[in-house]
Structure formats: structure tokens, C-alpha cells
Design the sequence.
């Protein structure tokens, strides 16, 4: 059935009746009672609900994808910053190694 046919056909036998059950505390007692709420949904309502749910799920997927892309960008930036920091320390380490070698030579020659 197309969406137009569903809207044009409000026949009660085409409707779905749901009974929602839920907890409801009784007064003065810790026992839980249940209540039933009948809900009639037409085929048009079901189609609309399906379309709205698909739209919302699409939006959620898009938001998750945007968050993943942003996370990956930040991770790449942190990785690059860390790599630059590590590479920039290499000359300092080499300089310290030369200073230590010079101090060792000086100590050995003065003894």
C-alpha cells in the first residue's frame, strides 16, 4: 500500500491496538500494580512513525560519524604534536651526550 492509500483508509479493522503495561505503586503498600493503556495506531500513523524513526536514526548516525571524524582529527593532531616534540628533543639529547663525553674526558685527563 502506498502512503496515500493508508491515509485514505481509516477503517478500524486496519488499525493496530496496543496495550501498554507499566508499573504503578499502590498507596500505602509496596506492591506494584499494573495499568493498561489501549493505544490505537492507524496504518498511516505506523508509516509516519517508521519514517520519523528512520530520519532520527539517520541524524544520529550522521552525528556519530561527525564525532568520529573530529576525534580522529584531534588524535592525528596530538600524534603530530607528540612526534614534533620527540623530534625536537633529539638535538638536546645529542648535545647532552656530547657534554657528558666532554666531562668524562676532562675528568680522566685531570686525574
Sequence:
Amino acid at each position: 500500500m502506498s502512503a496515500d492509500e493508508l491515509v485514505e483508509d481509516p477503517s478500524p479493522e486496519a488499525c493496530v491496538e496496543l496495550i501498554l503495561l507499566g508499573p504503578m505503586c499502590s498507596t500505602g503498600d509496596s506492591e506494584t500494580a499494573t495499568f493498561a493503556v489501549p493505544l490505537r495506531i492507524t496504518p498511516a500513523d505506523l508509516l509516519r512513525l517508521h519514517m520519523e524513526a528512520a530520519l532520527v536514526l539517520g541524524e544520529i548516525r550522521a552525528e556519530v560519524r561527525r564525532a568520529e571524524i573530529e576525534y580522529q582529527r584531534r588524535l592525528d593532531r596530538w600524534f603530530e604534536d607528540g612526534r614534533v616534540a620527540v623530534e625536537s628533543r633529539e638535538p638536546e639529547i645529542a648535545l647532552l651526550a656530547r657534554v657528558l663525553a666532554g666531562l668524562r674526558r676532562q675528568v680522566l685527563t685531570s686525574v
Notes: Confidence is low (pLDDT under 50) at residues 25-33. Strands lie at 16-25, 32-41. The radius of gyration is 36 Å. The chain is about 65% helix and 20% strand.
